[in-house]
């Protein structure tokens, strides 16, 4: 059996015995076959000694049991790693930043406390998955939609705390959080927003309560254990439709994104949009990749390719949810705005009224209709998995051009071919900015993974030099990413550390999460 770093074998045995007393013997896991389930199957250190592994796991079923576990962890200085359902694949799975941590697994806390159909919200515990919540809503015939990420097997609590995204107008998951309950490292339980008012009648309806708004402090952090979360849901819309907008030339991207930003920021086009390029996809299918290689084809040559192949250069599927006459008008107005770009073309898409019974072979993106599923795993082939590199860039065509050029040059400089499980064109997962998703392949090959890590780290630095930073990162890359958010000599990280020292002086909660280490494990920043 492994022991957590800095903890003697005898102290660890004593702590485990106390954990068993607190949560029940069957809910403390120490056997290899149990503990191995918490490995990150997409680890970029797979088969290497540096792989982040856990020493044990403990699964409490109530706030009181969490308090007991925290008391024990504090007295033996045991590092814990909190997970909800632990499905954070591509960003670390359920494995900790600090190897040897004990997983605080909240899967047993799986109560759906409330789903409110009149004000459209839910209050859930961490072990509730998107599938659980979806089923509950279906079983009770409630007219609300969830916004699942793809894939949908994680939890609203875990995914929202990681600031994940979905596809519907409620896609910015942390923005949909309204009121949380948190157990602090010393066992104190707080409720944020209106939840601080005993007998509050609006905990899930008004986010801010009174005084500083602290909810953000518990996202992507290690300042507490979130035990309840309010999330806003979408009222079931009357109808849905989608359609494609396409423009013919390379330089059309600038007015294309400007129009898109106008429509999105006006809430006429809502939900996630993925920029497409039939021309670049064609080139990718011929092994040319998507990024601009130095010495690659000129804009004129690419435009000629588009013309010769009769392919639009850029495009996007846009989606509309709401009353039929409203979404018809939104689609019409969308076409009118894009028509200002010479040569813009449009394609009618799908249309549904709700509730709907989808045919099995319907190609609609299920998550855009609030239906959780696992089909995204079909994207992964030939490798073990992937690690996501996801920088945020401005929502402009110029920024997209710059990104393709800068990353193309970075790859050329490293002398490696870009290797992605899926592609890098921007998504509007969040309002006002684009996010790029590079799926770096993880392979059962130590040398290849080592190179992948180097490429990843280089791209983080190159992105930062251009003012682009990651919205979230893999557990093994948290220091790398935190290190580039360095304005004013890492002033923000120092505030995080100050808070950490105040709320978790023994440093038991998720050491290293988002680059925030407790005092005894902190190293000086470059
Ligand atoms: P999901 O349930 O969606 O699979 P995870 O359980 O993998 O999500 O959680 C993602 C990350 O969010 C974890 O690595 C952890 O750092 C953080 N986290 C998850 N649940 C909690 C929680 N209840 N309290 C505090 N942090 C959490």
Radius of gyration: 24 Å
CATH H level, superfamily name of the largest domain: FAD-linked oxidases, C-terminal domain
Low-confidence stretches: none
Q: Give the oligomer, counting copies of the same chain as homo and different chains as hetero.
A: single chain
- Give me the number of helical elements: 13
What does this structure look like?
This protein has helices spanning 9-23, 32-35, 63-76, 130-139, 156-161, 253-265, 278-285, 299-309, 324-338, 397-414, 446-465, 478-484, 487-503, and strands at residues 28-29, 56-58, 80-83, 102-105, 112-116, 121-124, 144-145, 177-183, 189-191, 225-232, 234-235, 239-247, 275-276, 314-322, 345-353, 385-389, 391-394, 427-430, 433-435, 438-442, 469-470. Helix 1 (9-23) packs antiparallel against helix 3 and helix 10 packs across helix 11. The protein folds into 3 domains: 1-108 and 476-526, 2-Layer Sandwich (Uridine Diphospho-n-acetylenolpyruvylglucosamine Reductase, domain 2), CATH 3.30.43.10; 112-235, Uridine Diphospho-n-acetylenolpyruvylglucosamine Reductase, domain 3 (2-Layer Sandwich); 239-472, Vanillyl-alcohol Oxidase, Chain A, domain 3, CATH 3.40.462. Strands 5-6-10-8-9 form a 5-stranded antiparallel β-sheet. A 4-stranded mixed β-sheet has the order 1-2-4-3. The chain has a 4-stranded antiparallel β-sheet with strand order 13-14-12-15. It is of the alpha+beta class and 526 residues long. The model has no long low-confidence stretch (mean pLDDT 95). The chain is globular, with a radius of gyration of 24 Å. Adenosine-5'-diphosphate binds next to strand 3, helix 5 and strand 10.
């Amino acid at each position: 059996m492994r022991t957590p770093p800095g903890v003697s074998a005898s102290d660890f045995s004593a702590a485990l015995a106390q954990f068993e007393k607190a949560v029940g013997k069957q809910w403390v896991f120490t056997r290899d076959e149990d503990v191995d389930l918490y490995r990150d199957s997409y680890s970029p250190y797979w088969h290497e000694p540096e792989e982040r592994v856990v020493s044990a796991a403990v699964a409490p079923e109530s706030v009181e049991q969490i308090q007991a576990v925290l008391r024990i962890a504090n007295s033996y200085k045991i590092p814990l790693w909190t997970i909800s359902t632990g499905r954070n694949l591509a960003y670390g799975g359920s494995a900790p930043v600090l190897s040897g941590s004990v997983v605080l697994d909240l899967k047993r806390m799986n109560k759906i406390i409330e789903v409110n159909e009149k004000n459209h919200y839910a209050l859930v515990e961490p072990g509730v998955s998107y599938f659980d919540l979806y089923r509950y809503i279906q079983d009770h015939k409630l007219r609300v939609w969830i916004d699942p990420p793809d894939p949908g097997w994680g939890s609203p609590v875990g995914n929202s705390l990681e600031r994940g995204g979905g596809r519907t107008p409620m896609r910015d998951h942390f923005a949909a959080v309204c009121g949380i309950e948190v157990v602090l490292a010393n066992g104190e339980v707080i409720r944020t927003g209106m939840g601080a008012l005993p007998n509050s009648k609006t905990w899930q309806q008004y986010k801010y309560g009174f005084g500083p708004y602290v909810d953000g402090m518990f996202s992507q952090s290690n300042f507490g254990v979130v035990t309840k979360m309010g999330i806003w849901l979408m009222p079931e819309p009357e109808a849905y439709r989608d359609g494609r907008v396409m423009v013919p030339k390379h330089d059309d991207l600038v007015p294309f994104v400007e129009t898109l930003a106008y429509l999105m920021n006006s809430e006429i086009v809502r939900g996630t949009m993925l920029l497409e390029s039939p021309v670049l996809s064609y080139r990718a299918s011929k092994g040319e990749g998507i990024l601009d290689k130095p010495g690659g084809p000129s804009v004129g040559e690419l435009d000629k390719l588009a013309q010769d192949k009769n392919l639009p250069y850029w495009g996007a599927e846009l989606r509309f949810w709401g009353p039929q006459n409203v979404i018809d008008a939104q689609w019409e107005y969308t076409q009118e705005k894009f028509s200002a770009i010479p040569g813009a073309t449009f394609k009618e898409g799908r249309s549904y009224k709700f509730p709907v019974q989808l045919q099995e072979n319907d190609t609609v993106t299920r998550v855009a209709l609030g239906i959780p599923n696992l089909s995204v795993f079909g994207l992964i082939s030939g490798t073990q998995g992937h690690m996501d590199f996801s920088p945020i860039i401005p929502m402009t065509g110029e920024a997209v051009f710059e990104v393709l050029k800068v990353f193309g040059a970075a790859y050329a400089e490293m002398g490696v071919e870009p290797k992605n499980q899926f592609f890098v064109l921007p998504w509007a997962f969040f309002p006002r900015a684009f996010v790029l998703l590079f799926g770096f392949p993880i392979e059962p090959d130590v040398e290849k993974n080592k190179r992948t890590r180097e490429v990843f780290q280089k791209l983080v630095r190159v992105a930062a030099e251009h003012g682009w930073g990651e919205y979230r990162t893999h557990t093994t890359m948290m220091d790398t990413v935190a290190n580039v958010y360095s304005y004013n000599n890492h002033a923000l990280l120092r505030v995080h550390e100050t808070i950490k020292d105040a709320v978790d002086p023994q440093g038991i909660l998720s050491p290293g999460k988002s680059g925030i280490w407790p005092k005894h494990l902190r190293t000086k920043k470059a």
